[in-house]
Amino acid sequence: MMNTSQAISGPQYADAVATLSGLFGTPLELEDLEAMALPAENGPLGLLARIPLLQDDVAKLIAIARDFGSPKAGVIELNKAFCRLFLGAGGPMSAPPYESAYLGSGRLFQAPAGEMAKLLREQCLQPVEGFPEAPDHLVVELSLLEESLRLAGVSEDKADIATVRSLHERLKSWVPAFEKACGDFDRTGFYACAARLLGRLLNEPLPCPSAPIAA
User: Fold this and answer.
1) Which of 173, 175, 177 lies closest to 199 in space, CA to CA?
2) What are the tens digits of pLDDT across the range 15-73?
3) Domains plus CATH for the chain?
4) CA–CA separation, 110 and 83 (whole Å)
5) Which residues are bridge partners to 137 per DSSP?
6) Each residue's pLDDT tens digit, 2-13
């Protein structure tokens, strides 16, 4: 039986966030899928597999990666799925990776995009060059959560911890709807499983430093 009682450390949580973020930013390359089909401890999902509550879904993700017949065929199918789900090619049967898509009218570039742009400026950060997505893209929010977790773990500063908690609550407010859309519309099961992994991780207690947060 899987052990789910082991607490996740701050570095583990940040590593897991970084690994999952990498699955939603760009389509997988051939070498990515080949590596993902390796045993968990030897592949890019190894950091996730060390977290007991994620192990079952990591095993499922690896099984899906192996089940395409060949890595080349798998990359073709996963790239189609990526375009349908995340780039709008699926029309209403898509899973937009933007917070704005799941709030209010569902139009992009709503208030969450402005809020995230402001938060990035406050942290003196910006998306990497060549990543032309809105500031409330899932990868941007996850990357900022990862960076903030690592910073707060070192500084134990109240403001840094507050940023971590705010980002965590922000993601928890809309990722369940994103996860459901992936589950409903992903024909490969790969991105549905990855989104489920993300949802499980976000539902775990946040490993913030113990410094108190001012009310």
Assistant:
1) 175
2) 999 999 999 999 999 999 999 999 998 999 999 999 999 999 999 999 999 999 899 99
3) 10-202 (1.10.3480.10)
4) 22
5) 98
6) 344 467 888 899
Assign 98 to helix, strand or coil.
Answer: strand
What tokens appear for 87 in the block? Answer: 């780039």
Q: DSSP H helical segments within the chain, as ranges?
A: 10-25, 30-36, 46-49, 55-66, 71-86, 111-122, 138-155, 158-185, 190-202
- The answer to whether 49 and 20 have CB atoms below 8 angstroms apart is no
- Condensed to tens digits (0 to 9), the pLDDT of residues 89-122 reads 888 999 999 999 998 766 777 778 888 888 888 8
How far apart CA 120 and CA 140 sit, in angstroms, is 9
Give residue 65's identity as a one-letter amino acid code: A
Is residue 167 within 8 A of residue 145, CB to CB? The reply is yes
Supply φ then ψ for residue 137, to 5 degrees. -65, 145
Pick the closest to residue 56 from 20, 7, 3, 123 (CA basis): 3
Residue 179, C-beta contacts closer than 8 angstroms, at least 6 positions apart: 192, 195, 196, 198, 199
Q: Are 64 and 76 in contact (CB under 8 A)?
A: no
Non-local CB neighbours of 190 within 8 Å, separated by 6+ positions: 61, 64, 65, 78, 81
